[in-house]
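Case study B.
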Amino acid sequence: MSKPTDTQRMEKIVSLCKRRGFIFQSSEIYGGLNGAWDYGPLGVELKRNLKNYWWRLMVHDRDDVVGMDGAILTHPAVLKASGHVEGFSDPMIDCRTCKAHLRADQLVEKKGVKQCPNCGGRDFTEARQFNLMFQTHVGAAAEESSIAYLRPETAQSIFVQFKNVLDVSRKKLPFGIAQIGKAFRNEINPRNFTFRSREFEQMELEYFCRPEQGMGLLEYWKEERLKFYENIGLERAKLHVLNVPDAERAFYSKGTYDIEYDFPFGRQELEGVAYRTDYDLSQHQKASGKSLEYFDEETKEKIIPHVVEPSAGVDRTVLAMICEAYAEDQAPNDKGEMESRIVLRLHPRMAPMKCAIFPLLKNKEPLVAKAKEIVALLRPHMTVFYDESGAIGRRYRRQDEIGTPFGVTVDFETLGERDPALRETVTLRDRDSMKQERVAIQDLPSILQERIR
Ligand code: GAP
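Model:
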């Protein structure tokens, strides 16, 4: 089989996501809302597995990190102090030929002349600054004093609540505050499926420290985050670290790494790990007039902590996992003939459904009853999928396509009809190797739990 081009591969992935219920276009029956996506039954499980794993590693497994969940509606003073009201904008240009609205950096240069990426036109409006924040009004009156914003990042509520969280958690530097939640940006050109959306989720950690610890912690978090991506199944060779050059970094940052991934549409950012110095807390202290200082009991000094921020996108990571997992190979059908199959080789830890359970035949009551017993045995420990319809090969294929790593088949051996030694055993099939092993039903929970953790 010829290797599909990357564009073809991406089209196949988008189509699979819709067909199998991972990701749908938002408001699809009304023509769709550009830059917004809805996650279906399987997409929501995958996304939750990712967020839960991030939370487990970044919060629950550590003594030095606590969590919070801030509001999306944000006081304009917060975003004035952070610099977003003034500076969170992209230069925008319109093509006079095809009327496309473009980010200035999207123009393509051919023989030293800038051209429209849509139509090749060369006639553009002047660049103007376009603020990416969504503005709304709180309460009935739509006036200047009622303006609020949908947060453009989760980070700001962490900075604003720094003192409250410090007081209640009684943590000592270095320590972090983590948050997972929605963020909104009125992107000029949402594109590449969910990669650049107008509504998306972030997983952010603000890790506060002494100034002299900042650069070391920047390295530490870059390494931790790379390990994270490997642990969810992204191949190390497809992950890259970009050391963002001085000229492209925010002026307050002393160092920023972008962790990038080789998507089918090119190498793109998954996460930024930035040493933001004491910029954010200082800005909020100045603007609010409230102290955001930390009293260091060792030195008896008050300081404004510095911060290192690993900031990841949930939607981008979900997309990267699907892109990494998508594969086409050959598998035998019920007659033993090889057929091409689509398989999502998702890491078992991330897979939406962990185990599928099949009675060999749906019209044999003892097989069905035993399969349902196994569903009840496994359900408290993992997501399971019961399927009795169609030939067994087709049932495997359906599970391969959604990335279910394990399949259990209840057959006549299970009932002890052929060999009493095999009573209460089932076949356990591995999605990737397609190997089958015979295991005792009572051992299934421990065997599977070990493999999906
Ligand atoms: N607090 C820092 C911050 O927000 P950022 O680089 O603007 O930094 C962090 O965003 C991460 O959020 C990105 O690496 C990306 O994964 C995700 N992200 C940002 N804009 C996005 C968008 N329009 N659509 C999807 N994800 C986005």
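The first strand starts at residue 23 and ends at 25. The remaining cases will be described in the next quarterly update.
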